[in-house]
Amino acid sequence: MAQADRADNFLRMIQRSRRGRLKVYLGYAAGVGKTYQMLLEGHRLKAEGIDVVIGLVETHGRADTARLMEGLEMVPRVRHEYHGITVEEMDVNTVISRKPEVALIDELAHTNVPGTQNHKRYQDVEDILAAGIHVITTVNIQHLESLFNTVERDLGVAVRERLPDSILAEADEIINVDLSTEDLRQRLEDGKVYPEQRVRTALSNFFTPSNLEQLREMTLRELASQIDLRRREAISDEAPPTPDQVMVCLSSRGPNSEMLLRYGSRLAGRLNRNWYAVYVQTSKEAANIIDSTTQRLISNTLAVAKQLGATVFTYKGEDVADTILRFAREYRVGHIVVGSPAKRSFWKRFMSRKSLVYRLIDKAKDVEVVVVDTASVPAMKAPLEIIGEEAPVRAAERQVHRLAMNSLLGRNVVFWDEPVSKDEAIRALVHMACRDLPGCDEAAALHAIMVRESEGSTFLNEGVAIPHARLEGLHEPGAALGVARGGISGDDTGPADYIVLSLTPGGRPEVQIDILAAVCRAFQDRIFLKAMDSAVTADDVRDALALWAGTHREAT
Asked: Are 146 and 269 spatial neighbours (Cβ–Cβ below 8 Å)?
């Protein structure tokens, strides 16, 4: 497609949109021409009468890029003092108050200097999009969070600045800026990418032919994956539900949990499915028994899983394999991802005690068990950076809008100003969800919820609880939302501020799965959380729900 045609496509998106649209120029390395192409489009849009400003562009000393900035309005940057050094960042508030139609914002994965209102630039972009401003931006493939281990393993580079895969998954348009590796290396030699003193080092280290070819292949694969996601979205309403959700099994001290989670994220993206991170807590690992270091490790791992887009569960059970398989049956899991088994002692081998992996393979029916080799890869010396509040969102999760979450929850909202117990909150929400739901037996619903909670708490350690159950006799789902400004005291998994209870028909597990995905997506949305945190009445909560549902319907 010609560049002018691409600009026309984005122009049509702008003209029919209310919420800001996002367009990403994707490349595989510095110097392929992402910023250059973004600025060219800025000039084309300006020629069409569109109000375009430069929110932030980094020239890196490239004369051609600097010349292209001429003729486009630039929003002044804001200065921050950090350790005696003056650092300039994008002035997000000025961009929003200026309210152009389109903002050009470079280097989406950039980490802002401490003291700015957002930790990452992609969060700045989210705020600008929420204000109704369209954004055109740039990013390289190696900055995707789920590719961190792949890039580190294949290229020997640990990428420091990363962003959630969801930013790319939710972009309205992705343009691959491609250049042959030979031409890119020639550009470096000609001094068009880095200053002369950096060229030799760059060519012999990061910009080797092998590295560039691998990065280029990753970019093309990712672009093909995004195209496939959008194709599946178009036919999703006609596709029958299949047990193909992805589940990542976590342990309290498993090596390289981050690697497992990234693998699960990539696999779910390829399959266009929801995915779960599940930690099975045995009696030996109860919160009052394990040491504080292990507790912190578990909590951090589950927090990372949430950041990567998983729906996170803590289950209780003495037989870990049976508990995992029970979860897989309930949530229609088709792929179980586990780490490779640790070396077993002579005594265990002598007693023929099978490892968890072998027991899963023996007992799993119609489920693929994917064993990721975590034992042979050294664990990361530092924990995975929590990369922000937004989490990866897969195309499958966009399908949940048809369930009208706003209508499910909007009429059933309860506020508690004082602390409330978990049991008290669940009873109130079950009553509210059942009162107008045909075929709902309140006593049976309460019993089912409590049984489910006894198996594994749905208090997720992130301030949100999602108790749920499937009931025979129901023909449609019901739900209720509780907001506890004094907190909801749970069990040993900790308190929650929000509790979303759902009841779904027993013979339709896909409905429950879609509702849980919608709830998790909503509470991972920065704008929705801001609205919820500022709500003081049930009507405010309904407004936040309506805004979230309406905004996302327009953007898909």
From this structure: yes
Report the CATH number that the domain containing residue 307 is assigned in CATH.
Answer: 3.40.50.620
Domain that holds residue 130: 3-235
CATH number at residue 516: 3.40.930.10
Residue 392 pLDDT level (bands cut at 50, 70, 90):
very low
d(CA 276, CA 98): 41
What does pLDDT average to over the chain?
Answer: 80
Q: Which CATH number fits the domain that encloses residue 26? A: 3.40.50.300
Instruction: Give the chain's radius of gyration (CA, Å).
Output: 25
Tokens standing for residue 293:
């270091």
Distance CA 106, CA 126 (A): 14
Residues in CB range of 430: below 8 A, 6 or more apart: 442, 445, 446, 449, 480, 501, 503
Q: For the chain, how many structural domains are there in total?
A: 3
Please tell me whether residues 187 and 58 are part of one structural domain: yes
102 and 42 Cβ atoms separated by less than 8 Å = yes
Cβ atoms of residues 304 and 386 within 8 Å: yes
Does 385 reside within a domain?
no
- pLDDT above 60: residue 398: no
pLDDT in tens, 37-68: 999 999 999 999 999 999 999 988 888 899 99
What pLDDT, in 10s, does the model give residues 463-491? Answer: 788 888 889 888 888 899 988 888 777 55
Is 269 among the domain residues? yes
Q: 310 near 524, Cβ under 8 Å? A: no
Retrieve residue 418's tokens: 């004082």
CA 360 to chain centre: 28
Distance CA 280, CA 46 (A): 56
